[in-house]
Amino acid sequence: PTKVVASTVMSTACVIKWRSSASSKLSKETYEVQVAAAPEHEATPQWEQAVAAAAEEKLSVGGLIPGSSYAVRVRAHNSKGTSEWTSASLTTKQEAVDGGGCGPGYAWTQPEAGAGGPLHVRLPVPAGTRARQLQVVVKPLTLHVSLAGVELLTGSFFGTVLPDDLEWELIDHAELQISLKKDERCGYTYWPCLIQGHPLVDISLLRKPNPYEGGEGSAEMSEMMQKILAQRDD
Q: How confident is the model over 87-135, as pLDDT tens digits?
């Protein structure tokens, strides 16, 4: 198999897809799929069998841990033999807490639905920090936070915000709390991350499904939602 990828990645489940090799002698085949938590450093992965003989070129995998990295591998079997493993990696999304999650060195929430809803950011700072040492610069698309000239948090928002609604406060000289408001013109009810490129939050269970959304992803989402709900009922 070729082009092994993880699609429709959620907090506890994902869909693994691959393609059979048209030039392979193993052209009519079943597929074995294994999953392992990504090992630390150079430790050997502890592979677990997800399926021994899948007939389709995709597989829904559940029971994953939110916000964790995994390795997956796929190989083909038929009467002529067994192919080599083809591997890929993935990171599951975080479970949403008040609509948000954690980024590098900070936590964020979006407690209310709506394109113009609030965003709250909590950023620990060294004990004894003074407000005058902090600089918080918000533009419609970007956030920049520094302490005495040292960058603490910077990047591009997932959507856009209203800079005039910025409020921030230093709590007990140890935590910076920032309140923002989304620009409703950006149209996103929930953001999957505060800053682009930072860890994603699983917002699929926060919003009502749109019955008019179609395409391949809709069927995958329905299948994975059933897996998640079944796990919650166990």
A: 999 999 999 988 999 999 999 999 876 667 899 999 999 999 999 999 9
Q: Which two tokens stand for residue 52?
A: 């021994």
Residue 155 phi/psi, 5° resolution?
A: 160, 180
Collapsing DSSP to helix, strand or coil, 48 comes out as strand
Q: Tell how strand 86-91 and strand 81-82 pair up.
A: unpaired
| Structural domain count of the chain | 2
> 164 pairs with which residues across the strands?
none
DSSP notation for 56-117: SSEEEE--PPTT-EEEEEEEEEETTEE---EEEEEEPPEEPBTTBEEETTEEEE--S-STT-
In a domain, 160, yes or no: yes
185 lies in some domain: yes
Contacts of 207 (CB under 8 A, 6+ apart): 113, 189, 190
Range of 157's domain? Answer: 95-202
Contact 139, 163 (CB under 8 A): yes
73, exposed or middle or buried, with CB in 10 Å at 0-12, 13-18, 19+?
Answer: buried
The phi and psi torsions of 224 (rounded to 5 degrees) equal: -75, -35
Q: Does one domain contain both 108 and 181?
A: yes
HEC string of 134-193? Answer: EEEEECCCEEEEEECCEEEEEEEECCCECHHHCEEEEECCCEEEEEEEECHHHCCCCCCC
CATH code (residue 125): 2.60.40.790
- Reported as a single tens digit per residue, the pLDDT across 142-174 is 999 999 999 999 999 999 999 999 999 999 999
